[in-house]
Structure formats: structure tokens, C-alpha cells
Amino acid sequence: MGTSPAFDLQSSRKERYDQLDLQCPAVLVDPDPVANQANFAALIHMAFGWHWVGFYRVKGQELILGPFQGPVACTRLHKGKGVCAAAWDRNEAVLVRDVEEFPGHVACSPLSRSELVLPVRDDRGQVRAVFDIDSAVVGDFEPADAVRLQKLIDAVSTALLENPQYDHP
């Protein structure tokens, strides 16, 4: 990629989501999903400046850390515990206004105050990863964020997930 996407953090969230709707399909073109996950996390981080954004991949009964932007993170999360596991279990976005009020919240960073986690589904609707977003601000996420981000993730999910046709070197 020859140029770097730029986002005006003073523009509305809607305008930044509109820009992401155009940029993500153009940027997420590598046959390797890890490369695409890394660029997706970077784009979301650049667009909104949230504290932490990244992927946890489903492996057996755990979520394993994938590409992310932000401070050091928990490397493994267990089924049934925390916001990421709730999104995985429910197969739906989970928005938490204040993480201190979420039973079983896994605190990977003391600066995280609100959280939004979205499932990344394969073509059969199975959750294969989750995209986790943490903000240092209580109540930073609205239902509209969940709707727009889920729509974006659903539109690019094939680029974000392991493709059996991709022959790894």
C-alpha cells in the first residue's frame, strides 16, 4: 500500500465510519488473514484513537490474542469469562458502558473503562474470532457504534479469517 489513510478525529463518528466503509475493502486485500487483521486494527485505531483495539482468535475453548493496536494485552481468554467470551458465546456484539459493572470482566488494562466486542463470523455464521475495542472513557460506545462496526466486520470477514484455499509458505 503506497499511501496511509488519514482520519480527521474532529469529524463525526458517522463520517469516519463512512470513510472506513470505503477504505477497508481496498486495504484488506492480502491473502493472509493475519496481515488483514493487523491492518484492520490499525485502521480502526487511527480512525477513533481508542485505547486498545484488536482481535482474539477462537482456538478450542480459548480466545488467543491476535493483531492489535495499543498497550500489551492478555494473551489468552477463557470461555465463559469476560466481555470477549460473552460476545463469542452469544454470537453478537456486547457493549459495556462501564467495565467495572460487568460481572467477570477481565481487566487487561487498568485504563480500560468501557468496551465493545464484536463477533467475526465465517460464512456458516460461526464465531471464529472477536474484535475487541477498549476505551479509557466510561460510556464511550453507543449502539450505533456496534451496528456500524458489525456491518463493516461482516462485509470484510472473509479477508479477516483463515482461508483454506490460501497455501501458507
Task: Give an overview in words.
The model has no long low-confidence stretch (mean pLDDT 91). The chain has helices spanning 13-27, 33-48, 83-90, 143-160; strands at residues 52-59, 62-69, 76-78, 94-96, 114-121, 127-135. It is α+β, with helices and mostly antiparallel strands. Strands 3-2-1-6-5-4 form a six-stranded antiparallel beta sheet, with helices on both faces. Strand 5 and strand 6 form a beta hairpin.
Which structural class best describes the helix and strand composition? alpha+beta
Give the strand tally: 6
- CATH class category: Alpha Beta
Strand portion: 15-25%
CATH topology: Beta-Lactamase
- Biggest sheet overview: 6 strands, antiparallel
Terminal residue distance: 21 Å
Q: Percent range for helical residues?
A: 25-40%
List the helices and strands and how they pair.
Elements: H1 13-27, H2 33-48, E1 52-59, E2 62-69, E3 76-78, H3 83-90, E4 94-96, E5 114-121, E6 127-135, H4 143-160
Antiparallel strand pairs: 1-2, 1-6, 2-3, 4-5, 5-6
Helix pairs in contact: 1-2, 1-4
What is this entry, summarized?
This protein is α+β, with helices and mostly antiparallel strands and 169 residues long.
What labels describe this entry?
alpha+beta, Beta-Lactamase, six-stranded antiparallel β-sheet, 4 helices
